[in-house]
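Sample entry (238 residues):
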Amino acid sequence: MDDNKHVLTVNIKPQPDDVTCGPTCLHALYNYYQDHLDMEVVIGEVQQLKSGGTLAVYLGIHALQRGYQATIYTYNLHIFDPTWFTENTQLHVKLRQQASVKRQLRIKLATDAYVQFLSLGGKILYEELTPRLLKKYLVKQIPILTGLSATYLYQCAREIAETNQYHDIKGEPSGHFVLIKGYDRDSRMVHISDPLNPNPVAKTEQHYQVPIDRLINAILLGIVTYDANLLIIQPKKS
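Predicted structure, serialized as tokens:
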């Protein structure tokens, strides 16, 4: 295959509602690995937030419990301090220490989830988000599940949470999960499989391309909604 262009075949269903983009992406990833599980089962088993939606770490926990390897590249500075990755740090200890002084419910929920993720054998890494990092997995035939800013990815108006209607004045930034399935180095475009149908980029299509710079910015801006991560799921090596 042309090293300048690498696109994986990923089939993804439309998400059933406004809060199931994460499990829908996870379902598509399982199918990619020939692990055929009903989407309703995946949605029912992945932990959800009471406010709606889920976290990438909950998706990773589900994958670990099904016997996969799972690695999270995090850019979420709400939860992880950069210095934790420059020292010989026990992440679960730092997470618990932080949760004891920061009382926000979201931090407590995320802390419990990340500690469970680590205990199940998951890895959490902190590395510069570059095209090379994305290509590293795509050339190995591994799609990348990412939590990002839908508002920036779509370049659309922000959304009213109660109605999910776009509104440039009343709206707030919204988060989303998509799968990265390919890249074209010459055009600097990345190929996306998106559970939202219709969506502001491709209207009635769930597979489209966006500039890689926009994707990277959307991932980093996912910090606004506690996303900002890459989730790498792959079968365990024999």
